[in-house]
Design a protein that fits this description.
Layout (H helix, E strand, L loop, with lengths): L2 E5 L2 E3 L5 E8 L8 E6 L5 E7 L6 E3 L7 E6 L4 E6 L8 E9 L3 E5 L3 E5 L2
Parallel strand pairs: 2-11
Antiparallel strand pairs: 1-3, 3-8, 4-5, 4-9, 5-6, 7-8, 9-10, 9-11
Length: 118
Amino acid sequence: QVQLVESGGGLVQPGGSLRLSCAASGFTVSSYWMAWVRQAPGKGLEWVSRISTSGQTTYSADSVKGRFTISRDNAKNTLYLQMNSLKSEDTAVYYCAREVPAAQYDYWGQGTQVTVSS
């Protein structure tokens, strides 16, 4: 069955960095665009970044552009999100998701908590 398992979250000070990972299994990872989506406390889901099947094309939300980098290693079935210059407003649960046509998501991981605080 399809599984997405995130890791790498934690508590970090403003200006710090974290690298999130998402281990995928149960499907041919290289056949799908993948994405990171987050949910801040008391708020709705916010799309963060997405990456093409090969990893050559990426898109990011304006709120994270220039600070976050999405990447993937299809040989390892793993998706990454490198987060630099973290701000308090980046505090959220971060989910990786498998993308299907029309920018919808059919499978999600369980999420990993990122807390940015001094």
